[in-house]
Amino acid sequence: MLPIVVPAMEPVAIVEPHPRRAELELEAIQAELVALRRRVARLEAAGLQPARPLRARPAINVLDIMGDYCRALAEEGYAVNGRHLTIADLQSIRRNQSLAHPRQVGMWLCVELVRHATVTQVARAFQKDHTTVMAACKRAAAILDREPRVAAAARAVLARFDVQREPHHG
Q1: Is this prediction's pTM over 0.70?
Q2: Domain at 60-160, CATH from 3.40.50.150, 3.90.190.20, 1.10.1750.10, 1.10.150.20
Q3: N or C, which end of the chain has less CB nearby within 10 Å?
Q4: Where are the domains of the chain?
Q5: Residue 117, Cα to own-chain centre: how many angstroms?
């Protein structure tokens, strides 16, 4: 009987790709282009011409919102263990309230502001599951009621994008 020889195999690490900024920006631009084309088609179907040239608004992506939100939290004096929050903190696995609450409000902001992004895409940017983002959106109103500095930072980000919106209570 011949011996069975198994070739040596190198271990393979399976790593989920990290969302790339360029990919998010491309998705935002593509979604805005589709929206503009639909708008032009509706105007043409009605026999109208736009009074001014249609221009795409600058693309908003999740990473931009996360960065703006971290800066707004810092301006409001929000700190954890004596240091300001970073995007890495929002993406971390730590679950203490001082990180979880701003993270949950950040998820709500991204879902509200990046209308073309799916909950799954927002979850990938935060390195979380989509159900975590859905739960965070439900909790955002209560957190904003309890934490004035987080609420002020969220309002500042919404104002930067000229959005007047409050989370739904419920």
Answers
A1: no
A2: 1.10.1750.10
A3: N
A4: 22-58, 60-160
A5: 8
User: Residue 115: which residues within 8 A CB-CB, separation 6 or more?
Assistant: 31
Q: How many angstroms separate the CA atoms of 29 and 60, rounded? A: 9
Give tens-digit pLDDT for 89-100: 999 998 899 999
End-to-end C-alpha distance for the chain, whole angstroms:
72
